Amino acid sequence: MSRFSLDPTEFTGKRVLVTGGTQGMGEAIARRLAAGGANVATTARSNLPEGQAPALFVQADLSTSDGVRNVVRSVIEAFDGLDIIVNNVGGSSAPSGGFAALTDEEWHRELDTNLLAAVRLDRAFLPAMLSRGAGVIVHISSIQRRLPLFEATLAYAAAKAALTTYSKGLAKEVGPKGVRVNTVAPGFIETEAAHRLVVRIAEQRGVDEMTARQGLMDSLGGIPIGRPGRPEEVAELVAFLVSDRAASIHGSEYVIDGGTVPTV
User: Which contiguous run of DSSP H or E holds residue 28?
Assistant: First the structure.
């Protein structure tokens, strides 16, 4: 549950899709919007974790066209369309080793997951939004689109940069027709997966978790607020952006990184 006050009826009647919505930021976003009264559909490649009960769950790999079609079909059958899309699915499975370690297949996989999954879902659900003259789309990008890390996530960073550019162009196209599009760019967010990484680093280096966490922050050039972000903080930002409280916010990118990006 959010630490912030919320209106449990704010999103009543809203049909929402949160991709990658069963863990980390996606789970926090789905939980926050459901707490506001929305009917929330989530997706993931793995099974629905025990204890989660979204209005709809679709197990699918959104890095594939078939996976996207499966989600679209299931959502339309259950909800007859969407009012809000949060394209959160993403990540990197590329090997370390810099540019030379990235094959064509790895580039395609990063682009399919971090860019084309969102493009394909938008293409499927936007026509109905445009016909109603209403809808909100949020794409979850990354500060790596501005601060790329070459060792293992160069392709991921490039795909997120493309997602941000796509989002801006899409906003210009659909804004006059009643659909808002914005982008959220998180920095280091300590999800459960990120915490497990901290624990592994601590064990490997023989240090405590605080030291391991600080090492990760230092690798990004430091985080001025002194800690990583939290999934529920990202969820609160997304909830604001998809709400009527943000009715004039459109075509923008919101960075939530504790001050990591050092430039204006």
Answer: helix 24-35
In sequence order, which residues have a C-beta less than 8 Å from that of residue 61 and are 6 or more positions away? 45, 67
Segment 246-259 mean pLDDT: 98
Sole residue written with tokens 């949060």: 86
* Contact criterion met (CB below 8 Å) for 19 and 87: yes
pLDDT band at 94 (very low <50, low <70, confident <90, very high): confident
Number of separate helices (H) and strands (E) present in the chain: 8, 7
Tell me the catalytic residues. 156
Amino acid at 203: E
Reply yes or no on whether the pLDDT at 3 is more than 80. Answer: no
**Helices within 133-250 (DSSP H only):** 154-174, 192-205, 209-219, 231-242
**What stretch of H or E contains 39?**
strand 39-44
Contact between residue 132 and residue 177 where contact means Cβ atoms under 8 Å apart? no
Q: How far apart are CA 209 and CA 198, in angstroms?
A: 6
Question: What gap in Å lies between CA 139 and CA 168, rounded to an integer?
Answer: 10
The CB density around residue 134, as the number of other CB atoms within 10 Å, is 12
Burial track 195-214 (b if 16+ CB lie within 10 A, e otherwise): eeebeebbeeeeeeeeebbb
SS (H, E, C) 47-103: CCCCCCCCCEEEECCCCCHHHHHHHHHHHHHHHCCCCEEEECCCCCCCCCCCHHHCC
Per-residue pLDDT reduced to its tens digit, 17-56: 999 999 999 999 999 999 999 999 999 999 999 999 999 9
Read off the tokens for 48: 């629905």
Secondary structure of residue 241 in the 3-state scheme: helix
Task: Tell me the helix, strand and coil percentages in the chain, rounded to 5.
Answer: 50, 15, 40
